[in-house]
Design brief:
The protein has a single domain, classed as ABC transporter involved in vitamin B12 uptake, BtuC. With about 270 residues, the protein is mostly helical. The longest helix is centred in the C-terminal third of the chain and has 33 residues. It is built from 12 helices and no strands. About 45% of the residues are buried. It is found in: Cell membrane; Membrane. Keywords: Membrane, Transmembrane, Transmembrane helix, Transport. One of its GO terms (biological process) is response to zinc ion. InterPro entries: ABC_BtuC-like, ABC_TroCD. It is a multi-pass membrane protein.
Length: about 270
């Protein structure tokens, strides 16, 4: 199957997003910001619609508009802490409203389903380069800001006292979330991006390891989920987004079952002693 150019393109993109998604997802999950990722995933649909309307690369247009909404959410979240969930609903409603208006108006003559559910057939070489550039920038910034992000994740107030520029870093992080979502829409699809960001991390957390080890395991589980979704969807001729989401949940259940069996065996050994 690798003799086909579209499979090669899809595989490269899948490897890249299998690294980027859990790197961002780890901080989102631990900071209880998973719903922000879900809202921005839906906001990316507006970016795709605008890109198709203006005849520019949908990945780049999705990144620009999703970054804008991410910064808006972060600004309003800091200003209206009691109404954080309402802010997400407003942004989600506005972005989806923009997307539906553009798509239903007939101004866009393209297959939007490939962005909603993911597709391995529509990944072009231009998409690969766009994903590669955004992924490298995202990974570089995460590594560069890693100590500050970890500090903010576990103790934001303490980080502020220690002199960490939390506001700037949070804005940068919002843009990184937007970049992660943008690079994933071609393969995974807009509707299940949030699961790809959160589920590999949730799976790794079941093993109860340290932060760095959990991050490494989440990348491994993400890689397994995405490649399983990619290959199985190819063989059964289905959208990779749905297959990837199913694979993510199944792997989570398998790890949870393994952990329960391991803990039960550990307790039995203690009782025998």
């Amino acid at each position: 199957m690798f003799e086909y150019a579209f499979i090669q393109n899809a595989f490269i993109v899948a490897v890249l997003i299998s690294v980027v998604c859990p790197l961002i997802g780890m901080f989102l999950v631990l900071r209880r910001y998973s719903m922000i990722g879900d809202s921005l995933a839906h906001a990316s649909l507006a970016g795709v619609a605008v890109g198709l309307l203006l005849n520019i690369n949908p990945i780049l247009s999705a990144f620009c508009l999703t970054s804008f909404f991410g910064v808006v959410i972060e600004a309003l979240r800091r200003r209206f802490r009691r109404y954080a969930e309402l802010i997400l609903v407003i942004v989600l409603s506005l972005s989806v409203g923009i997307a539906i208006t553009i798509i239903s108006s007939g101004l866009v003559h393209a297959n939007v389903e490939s962005f909603l559910f993911g597709s391995i057939l529509t990944v072009s070489r231009e998409d690969v380069w766009s994903v590669f550039i955004l992924s490298i920038i995202s990974i570089f910034l995460i590594l560069r800001l890693y100590p500050q992000l970890v500090f903010l994740t576990f103790d934001e107030d303490g980080a502020k006292i220690a002199g960490v520029k939390s506001q700037i870093i949070n804005y940068i992080f919002a843009v990184l979330v937007a970049a992660t979502i943008s690079v994933s829409i071609r393969i995974v699809g807009i509707l299940v991006i949030s699961s790809l960001i959160a589920l590999p991390v949730a799976t790794a957390l079941q093993l109860q390891r340290g932060f760095r080890r959990t991050l490494q395991l989440s990348v491994l589980f993400s890689f397994i989920d995405i490649l399983a979704g990619l290959f199985v969807s190819y063989w059964i001729d289905a959208a990779p987004g749905g297959v990837t989401a199913i694979a993510s949940v199944l792997l989570l259940m398998m790890v949870m079952a393994f952990q329960q069996i391991r803990l039960a065996g550990h307790h039995t050994d203690i009782e025998r002693m």
